[in-house]
C-alpha cells in the first residue's frame, strides 16, 4: 500500500563547479616593457652621440683688456696670470699666482711683470735647480736706470712645479713689487715694452687656470 502525503524525496543536486577564472589582463606588464625598451634605446642613442660628438672642453677664463682705460687707469681686473704680458703694471699685487688688476703704468701700482722666459729640458730638473735658474733669469732682466730701484723692491717669480712640468709647462714669470706704497712709472726701459708689443719676447704658454694655480712661487730680496 502506497503511503500518501509523504514528502517527495529531494533530487540530488549536481556538485558545485568553481567558476572559470577570467583571463588576466597583461596590459600593465606590456606597458612597463615598452617603457623599459624605450629608455634603453634612448641611453644607447645618447652614448653613441657622445662618442661621435663629445662635449667641448671647458675654456679657461679669458679676460679682455680695455684699450681705452679711464682716469682710474684700469685695463683689466681679475686677469689670470697666464694672460699677463711683459711690462704689465699691477695694482694690489700680492702673489704672482693670483688674478691681477692690470693698470696703466702712469697710474698708481705696486708691482710690474718685468720678465717672461721659457726654460728648456725634457726631464724635470728638480725644485732646487729650477729655483736657481728662475732667480738667475729674473735678475738678468735689464731695468730702467732712472727707475730708482732700492731695497724696498722685492723679486717674485713663478716657475713650473713638478706637476705642471709634466703638463708641458716651462714658463718662468718675473715680477718686482714694492713692500709698501705705490709708484706711477714703469721699471722697464721703453724698448723692452716695445719689443713685447711686437711679439719678440717669449710669453708663458696658456696652461689654464688649474695649471697656473699649482705652479711654484718664490720671493727674493732685490
Any overview of this molecule?
By secondary structure, the protein is an alpha+beta fold. Helix content is about 25%, strand content about 20%. A seven-stranded antiparallel sheet has the order 1-3-2-4-6-5-7, covered by helices on one side. The longest helix has 26 residues, at about 25-50. The radius of gyration is 40 Å and the shape is elongated.
Which terms summarize this structure?
222 residues
Radius of gyration: 40 Å
Classify the helix fraction into a percent range.
25-40%
Silhouette: elongated
Quaternary organization = single chain
The rounded distance between the terminal residues' Cα atoms is: 149 Å
Please describe the topology of this protein:
Layout: H1 27-52, E1 74-79, E2 89-91, E3 100-103, E4 111-118, H2 127-139, E5 153-159, H3 162-166, E6 171-178, H4 190-197, H5 208-213, E7 216-221
Antiparallel strand pairs: 1-3, 2-3, 2-4, 4-6, 5-6, 5-7
Summarize the structure.
The chain has 222 residues and is α+β, with helices and mostly antiparallel strands. It has helices at residues 27-52, 127-139, 162-166, 190-197, 208-213, and strands at 74-79, 89-91, 100-103, 111-118, 153-159, 171-178, 216-221.
Amino acid at each position: 500500500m502506497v503511503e500518501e502525503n509523504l514528502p517527495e524525496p529531494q533530487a540530488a543536486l549536481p556538485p558545485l563547479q568553481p567558476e572559470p577564472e577570467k583571463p588576466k589582463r597583461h596590459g600593465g606588464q606590456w606597458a612597463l616593457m615598452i617603457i623599459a625598451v624605450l629608455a634603453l634605446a634612448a641611453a644607447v642613442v645618447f652614448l653613441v652621440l657622445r662618442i661621435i660628438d663629445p662635449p667641448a672642453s671647458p675654456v679657461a677664463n679669458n679676460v679682455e683688456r680695455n684699450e681705452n682705460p679711464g682716469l682710474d687707469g684700469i685695463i683689466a681686473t681679475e686677469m689670470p696670470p697666464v694672460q699677463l704680458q711683459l711690462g704689465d703694471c699691477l695694482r694690489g699685487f700680492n702673489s704672482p699666482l693670483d688674478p691681477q688688476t692690470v693698470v696703466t703704468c702712469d697710474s698708481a701700482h705696486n708691482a710690474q711683470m718685468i720678465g717672461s722666459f721659457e726654460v728648456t729640458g725634457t726631464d724635470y730638473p728638480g725644485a732646487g735647480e729650477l729655483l736657481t735658474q728662475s732667480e738667475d733669469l729674473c735678475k738678468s732682466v735689464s731695468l730702467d736706470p732712472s727707475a730708482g730701484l732700492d731695497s724696498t723692491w722685492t723679486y717674485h717669480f713663478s716657475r713650473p712645479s713638478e706637476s705642471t712640468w709634466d703638463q708641458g709647462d716651462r714658463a718662468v714669470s718675473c715680477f718686482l713689487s714694492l713692500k709698501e706704497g705705490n709708484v706711477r712709472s714703469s721699471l722697464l726701459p721703453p724698448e723692452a715694452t716695445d719689443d713685447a708689443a711686437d711679439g719678440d719676447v717669449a710669453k708663458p704658454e696658456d696652461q689654464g687656470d688649474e695649471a697656473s694655480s699649482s705652479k711654484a712661487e718664490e720671493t727674493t730680496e732685490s
